[in-house]
Amino acid sequence: MKRTISSNISLIAVAVLFLWMKTYVVYKTSFNMDIENTLQEFILLINPLSFIMLAMGVGFFFKSDKARNRYLLGMSFFLSFLLFANVVFYRFFNDFITMPLLFQTSNFADLGNSVTEEFNVADILYFADVIILFLLLKFKPSFVKFRPMSKMSRRAYFLSAAAIMFLNLGLAEIERPQLLTRTFDREMLVKNIGTFNYHIYDIFLQSKSSAQRALADGSELTEIGNFSDANYAAPNDELFGAAKGKNLIMVSVESTQAFVMNNKVNGQEITPFLNDFAKESLNFTNFYHQTGQGKTSDAEFLTENSLYPLSRGAVFFTHSGNEFNSMAEKLEENGYYSNAMHANNKSFWNRDIMYDAIGYERFYDVNDYEVNEDNSVNWGMKDVPFFEQSVGLMKEMPQPFYSKMITLTNHHPFYYDEEDKMIDEFNSNSGTLNRYFVTVRYTDEALKTFVEDLKEAGLYEDSVIVLYGDHYGISENHNEAMAQYLGKEVTPYVSAELQKVPFMIHIPGVDGQEISTVGGQVDVRPTLLHLLGIDTKGDVQFGQDLLSEDHENFAAFRDGRFVTEDYVYAGDACWDKATGEQTDATYCTPYIEKAAAELNYSDRVIYGDLLRFYDPDSAIKEQ
Ligand code: GP9
Ligand code: MN
């Protein structure tokens, strides 16, 4: 018989090899995973293999060649597509896809520009192996001949797949003890068990969390309530009630990180208005966002409920049927007219449903605004007209009111109209970062006009104005450009510090003050309610009043990183804030447990829908 170069290579082995190699190449080229040593590199190399072998191995059980070929091609395409979907998602969010995200379809239609910005023609290469496999099967070039494997070799094949899986898990355990039970960080999971196994694990988590609500009962809340009570920080004597009876206007400032404040680009100030306004406000200079995959909506969730968002998916989508004890509700009980204002489709982030659960009396969405082509850019209505029209709506509101507003212009991909450009773009290799400065400058201007409009409407003196940045605008994908701007390397420490967002509270008649306490979005609810003279004692919450003498300097990020007064825990290492260098891990150790405990309790409240067992009257009685 004529020998051919691959005469004794089984078709299945070829399909496995193609996909395995491709996955590894994609790991190395399309995800930004830090590999610190040879063992980690080795784990990365082998981690896709066992799953691919098992998935393709099903091909052995097909009777007809045709059906088997179809299966192999189909499987190869499906897994490639899954990988590619993760690549696209990663470009956008620097994160991997989770199951709950797949059900957020109502968001997809609105992503528009943001997504197309992330595609290019070369992406076809992600399917190169599938195409080659297809051609091989279709045209069967004479030099290729596939032989069926013998029964023995088949058995060896499955045994090897199992052995590789155990080897992988064993090595992962050495590299990262208790990986599956303790980690909130998806990159760590993918690095250790591989993308495909990660998705299986994610499906497992999904079913587990669904079961949790059914099994929950009130007794769980007692334990968590005790934890939360012990965490309560009593209000500051001087400031408690300093803003009593005033309207509360809270603005979620899109994608605005703190590094733009008191900073310049090309010698031009980026946020002249915010810099001045901060001086007249209680200005928190060590305040971090704590959002996860739910981005803006996670920030809303944190500030309203003083609960952490989830580590997978957006809680606005996954748990909009839950019971909450929000700031909005609490304010309503105290005579406020609470509402949300955002000139976007009401269903984005499932807001229309979730806002009912949060308890806003009214949601002013895109239909309440006069939106046209002239006053829109990028994602929709520009911030200046948004604020202008919002003030018009506010004039009609019964007072005191609480309005939660969300800006939109400074959103990825940061497109703007030439007429709104007040400073020049930066000049790095990242168009995203270059444009970011221009759109931040625009939003700064919009906030300025907002305050002017409020003054004109006679609302300014009766209103507390709160501004917070919702989450980062510049992801780690732009580290190189960011390093160029900052003039220093973006280490995991610098990256964590970049998660600082502006947070300021302007209270008429109260002098401005810089407050350096370390905190985060989870602290907003108790801080604001106490300023408005409403105590939060007995409430199930994980934040503390940032103005309290008892406030602990601490901010846990949703992915397990955290910041204390002196240290930052990031990239699996402990960093000394005084030097910006790595330090002895033991300085961070006690807080690792604290961060994990808080996140875990908060998750249990959400997964178990535990606040349905909460009785505010009994909580009040305990005071
Ligand atoms: C959309 C806006 C943006 O309504 O809140 O959401 P984001 O993508 O920043 O989470
Ligand atoms: Mn946002």
Automatic annotation (TrEMBL):
Q: Which family does it belong to?
A: Belongs to the LTA synthase family.
Transmembrane ranges, per UniProt, are 9-27, 42-62, 71-93, 119-137, 157-174
Question: Pfam families attached here?
Answer: Sulfatase
Tell me a GO cellular component.
plasma membrane
Q: Provide the Sulfatase N-terminal domain boundaries.
A: 246-534
Binding positions (Mn(2+)): 254, 296, 470-471
Alphabetically, the GO molecular function entries are: metal ion binding
Q: What InterPro entries would the database entry show? A: Alkaline_phosphatase_core_sf (IPR017850), LtaS-like (IPR012160), OpgB/LTA_synthase_biosynth (IPR050448), Sulfatase_N (IPR000917)
Q: Superkingdom of the source?
A: Bacteria
Q: Where does substrate bind?
A: 411
Q: Where is the active site?
A: 296
Chief subcellular location: membrane
Organism encoding this protein: Domibacillus iocasae
> Which residues are annotated as modified residue 3-oxoalanine (Ser) in the UniProt record?
64
Q: How is it modified after translation?
A: The conversion to 3-oxoalanine (also known as C-formylglycine, FGly), of a serine or cysteine residue in prokaryotes and of a cysteine residue in eukaryotes, is critical for catalytic activity.
- How is this protein named in the record? Sulfatase N-terminal domain-containing protein
Topology of the protein relative to the lipid bilayer: Multi-pass membrane protein
